[in-house]
Amino acid sequence: MQKKHLTKEQAIMKLRQYCAYQERSHSEVQQKLWDLGVWRSEHDAIISSLIEDDYLNEERFAKAFVGGKFRMKDWGRKKIYYGLKEKGVSEYIIKRAMKEIDDEAYGKTLHELAEKKYALLKGEQYLVRKKKTMDYLLQKGYEPALVTSIVNSFGGKE
């Protein structure tokens, strides 16, 4: 079956809705263009049009991504960084967006997650409990040095 190709104007209208619904990265829009069956030769012009009309803004996307993943999912900086890398966001914009995370809030969130996880593992032996708590926090994307210092601060207390 032949894929129906959209005109440039039809594609722009569809992508404006797509971008208005939530912030998108350039790579997500690029993928959507392929999915819609838009000719490759028109991709750059369509993306430029979306940027000019402020439907597409990589920095705004990155800041929304960072804020959302940290506040809603409690992700650490490393996991957020790699999430943005996966979306094709530039190093410069990632650095700017990461400034959205307040150091104090970051430390507080990490501490709360560590305490909650540690408390959940009450029946485990001390070292197993420590390791599982550390693994959990590392998987969430928190930096190994921070994780180690927080989990070690628990000592042997119950």
Short description:
The protein is an all-alpha fold and 158 residues long.
Class derived from helix and strand content: mainly alpha
Helical percentage:
over 70%
Mean pLDDT across all amino acids: 92
Give the low-pLDDT segments.
none
Question: What would you report as the Rg, rounded to the nearest angstrom?
Answer: 21 Å
Name the CATH class of the largest domain: Mainly Alpha
Largest sheet: none
Count of discrete alpha- or pi-helical segments spanning 4 or more residues: 9
Q: Give the strand tally.
A: 0
How much of the sequence lies in strands comes to under 5%
Q: What is the H/E string?
A: HHHHHHHHH
The CATH architecture of the largest domain can be named as: Orthogonal Bundle
Domain count: 3
Separation of termini?
Answer: 65 Å
Protein name: Regulatory protein RecX
Function: Modulates RecA activity.
Subcellular location: Cytoplasm
InterPro entries: RecX_HTH_2nd, RecX_HTH_3rd, Regulatory_RecX, WH-like_DNA-bd_sf
Plain-language structure description:
- Modulates RecA activity.
- With 158 residues, the protein is an all-alpha fold.
- Helix content is 72%, strand content 0%.
- The protein is built from 9 helices and no strands.
- α4 (58-73) crosses α6.
- It starts with 7 loop residues before the first helix and ends in a 6-residue tail after the last helix.
